[in-house]
Amino acid sequence: MDERFNRWLLPPLLALLFLLIVYQYVSPACPGAACPRRPPASAARREGGPEEREEEEEAVAMPRLAAKFPFARGELCRRVRFDMRGRDVIVFLHIQKTGGTTFGRHLVRNIHLEQPCYCRAGQKKCACHRPGGDKDTWLFSRFSTGWSCGLHADWTELTSCVPAAMERRGCAGNRTLR
């Protein structure tokens, strides 16, 4: 009996199991009533022009997510003046796996400024001095000051570390935190 099972029944059972697994990965993402349905073509013709239909199709295709951190419109649209010649400092918060290394490198190498950062060949750090100054820096980042507050310092660490690190660098006037 055991030999007959292995020879005749096992291959069809394995094939059925394989098909079930394949169907699980190939089947539509949201079965049944869970998927948002498109209105019938006749209803779309009655409603409006192609622009309205495109907006509706986009709304159906990409469901709106509820805002996790609802910011006020005024907070999102506010303008902050940065005075490079004054006491302002940009503190770059590097978050891993978000393109932060590339963005940080662009901050020191590719921005057209009155006095661009000075980068030596073969060195990772660049000197980003204020226009007319040779010691005070306008940028606090991995590529300008190094990992002064530790590797991948988070917001809390940077908030407590940056003023002291700037004073150690001889930039005592930089006490304004935003």
UniProtKB/TrEMBL annotation:
Pfam families cross-referenced by the UniProt entry: Sulfotransfer_2 (PF03567)
Cell location: Membrane
Keywords: Glycoprotein, Membrane, Signal, Signal-anchor, Transferase, Transmembrane, Transmembrane helix
Catalytic activity: alpha-D-glucosaminyl-[heparan sulfate](n) + 3'-phosphoadenylyl sulfate = 6-sulfo-alpha-D-glucosaminyl-[heparan sulfate](n) + adenosine 3',5'-bisphosphate + H(+)
Keyword Glycoprotein among record annotations: yes
GO molecular-function terms, A-Z: heparan sulfate 6-sulfotransferase activity
EC numbers on record: 2.8.2.-
GO CC annotation, single: membrane
Leader sequence segment: 1-28
Topology class, membrane: Single-pass type II membrane protein
Transmembrane portions of the chain: none
Region (Disordered): 35-59
Tagged with keyword Signal: yes
Catalytic EC class: transferase
Described function: 6-O-sulfation enzyme which catalyzes the transfer of sulfate from 3'-phosphoadenosine 5'-phosphosulfate (PAPS) to position 6 of the N-sulfoglucosamine residue (GlcNS) of heparan sulfate.
Family note: Belongs to the sulfotransferase 6 family.
Name of the protein this chain belongs to: Heparan-sulfate 6-O-sulfotransferase
Organism listed in the record: Loxia curvirostra
